[in-house]
Amino acid sequence: MIDTPHVGLIGCGGWGKLILRDLKALGTRVTCVAPSEKSRANAVANGADLIVSTLDELPQVEGAVVATPSDSHGDVLLSLLPRNIPLFVEKPLTSDRVTAQLLARTAPDRIFVMDKWRYHAGIERIAQYARSGEIGDVLGLRLYRLGWSMTHNEVDPIWNLLPHDLSICLHVLGDVPPVTTAFADGLGPASSGLVAMLERDGGPRVVIETSAHHPVNRRSVILACTDGTVTLNGSLDEHLILRQGSPDNLNAPEIKVPFRNYMPLEAELAAFLRHLSGGPAPMSSVTEGALIVERVCDIRRMAGLPE
User: Fold this and answer.
1) Does residue 174 register a pLDDT over 60?
2) What are the pLDDT digits (tens) for 78-98?
3) Confidence (pLDDT) at 152
4) Residue ranges with strand state E in 212-306
5) Crossing angle for the helix pair 286-302 and 157-173, nearest 10 degrees?
6) How many CA atoms lie within 13 A of 125 on its CB side?
7) Span 190-209, mean pLDDT?
8) Is CATH 3.30.1140.32 the classification given to domain 6-116+265-286?
9) pTM of the predicted model as reported, rounded to 2 decimal places
């Protein structure tokens, strides 16, 4: 049992500083690997206990969180593996299929992916509807992740956006079905947005629309079942909208289903810290992370984009 865990945070940029903030709020001792002047300033401002410039300087820690640019995740994780500690990496696991598969084979029980939407209370409530059958059998899942512009320059918007929706699919359906169709959305450069369809024989159909060139911001998840359709309209909402009736019933009553919203980032970090103290593993194993990377690559290839 670890009373005050000592965690390494690799990277302290725009998202890493929020991770550091929440780790400190959870009572964690944090050493930051922050090579740039800006990242060091972020580490100081958010209360890092120790700041070093390179991975080689990182002291012994009980676990590590990786928040470097997406295209560096694979190299950083491989460098950390000899430490034999649990590792929590921001999504995506990697931005290439081969390295993702290598990590899944090499450290199946020590690497976990920070799929924050799996810790969103609204997504968990939708998953409960899917698992329980309380609104019938699942017919399909529709996901929208639309907005204007991106702040991550190391990979294109599809690598940044699509893993979120694939992790929601995994959480709600317990599966990420094979890709059947994918095409660029036409709203901007081909690499900025697409529409994809996933379906396993006899299973629900999943449709994902994602774009960084959509003029209106939208984050919506819709689960359609034989006896009801439930929707999360936005990440900050504190209720779902349930249409209680079959999808062809235009008069199906609309019901608000409240839930207690909390910050998913802090929730997933708390899960990782509990794991360091002997608790269960956080959601999204490296194997699941590698599956999501594989599906992103399949979707990109089918849409005519390089993997």
Assistant:
1) yes
2) 999 999 999 999 999 999 999
3) 60
4) 213-225, 228-232, 239-243, 254-258
5) 120
6) 21
7) 92
8) no
9) 0.94
